[in-house]
Write a structure and sequence with these properties.
Elements lengths: L8 H11 L1 H9 L1 H17 L3 H8 L3 H9 L6 H11 L4 E5 L2 E5 L1
Antiparallel strand pairs: 1-2
Helix pairs in contact: 1-2, 3-5, 4-5
Length: 104
């Protein structure tokens, strides 16, 4: 098999979201955590920080930053507040009857 024969990541994601209800449920459950992860990684890249340097800036441990950047576990409200204060960013949470979204 050649590399060009492999499906693109977006195609695999779209297929799994369409065809696999358990995958879709987990994807939706972790949406807020992925939003935080994406924002943290972007912040570190924009500021040239390592995970350890970001952890020091926030008064957290490097493994805690690593777990947040994995995007697999929803951060607590206290953690979101700490990130907002420490990084000077706004974090918005919207909770509806059938949805939860977070933008950072």
């Amino acid at each position: 098999m050649r590399l060009t024969d492999l499906p693109l990541a977006d195609e695999v994601l779209a297929r799994n979201l369409k065809d696999d209800p358990a995958f879709r449920a987990e994807w939706e459950r972790t949406a807020a955590a992925r939003a935080v992860a994406t924002r943290l990684v972007a912040y570190r890249a924009e500021h040239g920080l390592s995970q350890a340097a970001l952890a020091r800036k926030l008064g957290m441990s490097q493994p805690a930053i690593s777990r947040l950047e994995l995007g697999e576990h929803e951060p607590t409200i206290a953690t979101l507040a700490r990130l907002s204060r420490g990084l000077g960013i706004n974090i918005r949470i919207e909770i509806g009857p059938s949805s939860l979204s977070l933008s950072a």
